[in-house]
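Quick one: structure tokens for this chain, please?
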Amino acid sequence: MLEVVKALLAKGANPNARLVAPPVDHEAGPGYGKIIRIENGAYGSVSPVGATPFLLAAISYDAQLMRILLKGGADPKLVTRENVTALMLAAALARHRNLASLPPHEESQALEAVKVAWESGIDVNAADSVTRLTALHGAASWGANTIIQFLVDKGS
């Protein structure tokens, strides 16, 4: 994946391209037309409309891809239609609630993505425009203590 992204950027792909409509999940089966939504814990879900490759890398906790996109001209301060930032996504705000906590390996990956997002200048106290949740809410909802501590140390 990393090599594909590098090649696309080298050929002029726009690192700030946005989703203009939610993608449809064809795996849901005929007639369902399920719209993919970014889960937002117990608070429902947020729309991926406006998401950029950098935001999608953040939700995947892919710090290496986030760095490649930054080098390729990605604007880390772009947000979704609902003002969801890469820092919020990296802090697991949008993770589907199917476990009591983040597994240790995922928390470690998420922390690296949080650090990349914070280093790129994203406000630790930004809140989404629907639920007013922040990155700290995301980390706290998963008991991700290393991320909580990092965010608090950075002023959250």
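Residues 2-153 form a domain with the Serine Threonine Protein Phosphatase 5, Tetratricopeptide repeat fold (CATH 1.25.40.20).
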